[in-house]
Amino acid sequence: MAFLDPIFNPVLLPLLNKSPFLGIVVLAFIISLLITIVYKYFTNQEEMKRLKEQQKEFQQRMKGLKSNPDEMMSVQKEAMKANMEYMKHSFKATLITMLPVLIIFGWMTAHLAYEPIYPGEKYSITAQFAPGVSGEAELLVDEGTTLLSEAQQKIEGAHASWQLQSQSGEHFLTVRVGTEDKKQEQIKKVLITKELTYEPQISNFQDSDILNIRINYNKLHPLEQLIFGWKSGNKIYIPLFDWEPGWLGLYIILSVIFSMGLRKALSIY
Q1: Exposure class string for 96-127: b at 16+ Cβ within 10 A, else e
Q2: Distances from the Cα of 149 to the Cαs of 125, 164, 207, in angstroms?
């Protein structure tokens, strides 16, 4: 979603660079507010209120019919019909907000999935080769990039990896494979920066012995960055699920909280 960079980067990128967590909070609130406003003005709230109250009535009736399965089943069918009607009314608002939300999600993925590669930081790339390709692969680097491993690497399990360091800026790394008579090469762009932005992790290639080249980024964990700072190596887990939350998990939790609060504040059904 690079076309959104001129719109979002000047406003949101400084906030993300300072604290990805706060950036996620702001974006979750903005998206929740957008969805809530569209929902309020593109649905018939009187009808939605009636259907909600009807659903509550059905739930109360079913509680008192536990000893009468046949009657309970009949009420349950009516409740399902009312629920489908409710969903039908809300579908228009969902369609209106779907595309903008997906576009914003694309921008968030391009800036919040991984940590940036800092100037002078060690990083690695991995090339995957087509079945049957063997021998050695060579990596050629540009000015400002230092190879920390041998340029020639043996292809093992259809893969070869290299360790590098680069100065700030854009760099172009060339993977070469084959014999003198038939060499193939592909180029992977790498961005070295202190800002929370990066090149796509994987570049795929068609009709080549080099199937793809992957930058081995570190995943971004916004809570850890908020508490410990960049590159600390500390981890935060939610014990109940042994879960280390990333940007998407945090966004979902925050959006649910914001949506519930906004719906209540605006009396939306």
Answers
A1: bbeeeeeebeebbebbbebbbbbeeeebebbb
A2: 11, 7, 28
Question: What are the percentages of helix, strand and coil residues in the chain, rounded to 5?
Answer: 50, 25, 30
What does the alpha-carbon distance between residue 156 and residue 159 come to, in Å, rounded to a whole number?
5
Can you tell me the distance from the alpha carbon of 229 to that of 99, in angstroms, rounded to the nearest whole number?
34
Letter for the amino acid at 181?
D
Structural tokens at position 232: 């600390």
Running DSSP on this structure, what letter comes out for residue 188? E
Q: Domains in the chain and their CATH numbers?
A: 2-113+246-265 (no CATH), 123-215 (2.60.40)
Strands (E), 72-224: 123-129, 136-140, 145-147, 152-154, 159-166, 169-178, 183-192, 202-204, 210-215
- Residues 143, 161: contact at Cβ < 8 Å? no
Closest listed residue to residue 231, CA positions, set 199, 200, 196, 198? 196
pLDDT digits (tens, 9 = 90+) for 152-210: 999 999 999 999 999 999 999 999 998 777 889 999 999 999 888 899 999 999 999 99
Cα–Cα distances in angstroms (integers) from residue 133 to residues 152, 153, 196, in the given order = 15, 13, 36
138 SS3 class: strand
Q: Are 62 and 77 in contact (CB under 8 A)?
A: no
